[in-house]
Amino acid sequence: MSKSGIDQEALIGLFSQASARQGEALRKAVGEATLKALQGRELTLQNIRSVVKSVTKAASAGLAENPSPTLDPEALLGKAFAGMDSALLQAVEAHRKALQQFVSQGVGLQEKQLKGALGDLEKLEEVFFDTVGKAAGSATEPLQGAWSQVLETMKLKGTDTGAQASDAVEQLVTQARTALRDSRTLGLKTAQALLDGYSAMVSGVLIGMAEGLAQGGSEAAPAAKARRR
Predict the structure, then answer these.
(1) pLDDT tens digit string along 77-92?
(2) How wide is the angle at C-alpha 222 spanned by C-alphas 229 and 130, nearest 5°?
(3) For 18-57, how does the pLDDT look when each residue is reduced to its tens digit (9 = 90+)?
(4) Rounded distance, CA 44 to CA 117, Å?
(5) Contacting residues for 46 by C-beta, under 8 A, at least 6 apart
(6) Whether 47 contacts 55, CB under 8 Å
(7) How far is the CA of 76 from the CAs of 9, 63, 141, 164, 170, in angstroms?
(8) Residue 62 and residue 10 in contact, taking contact as beta carbons nearer than 8 Å
(9) Is the pTM above the cut of 0.70?
(10) Distance between CA atoms of 105 and 179, rounded to whole angstroms?
């Protein structure tokens, strides 16, 4: 088990034996492993980078060992990327639900911790792409080329994570403006007392959402795809 909480040896083993017919099973396995690692830590951008980096490197290492003569690296790496995307989508939803609870109680988005969390949501897709790209840079050829194609394709399409994050930020800003207009704001001390528990709340929300991925993915995914530009 790596410091990121990812069982890299298990993932390497999956990719080293994977075939095109196992693509969907591979996507689900990557999603579950990524989500499990995220559940074991605070949902900071640093921790998300660590998990995504470990998964990317494991996928590359496993495919480098795959002996199949008909191997399609780009297709399988695309499934790996999709698996990580499904897990990060759950992370976005956990942040959105936690932030909504704070805003509904009158905590303003201008508060430092909530402002920082909102900023993290806005740049999560960028961090996702950047981390995969850097981690893929250490892969051998032709895997570097395959990763480049996967990233290029997904940047054109956009990720479910990015679409849902944009939607969440828009919803939260609207909710905060409504609360301000209705004068539902808390005093500084009360707000800070609530904010002190923010990280724990987000982690708890994410753990509670695990069943959704186990049943085949987040219910928010179809909505995110529908909103994608």
Answers:
(1) 999 999 999 999 999 9
(2) 55
(3) 887 788 899 999 999 999 999 877 888 999 999 999 999 9
(4) 9
(5) none
(6) no
(7) 17, 9, 15, 24, 34
(8) no
(9) yes
(10) 9
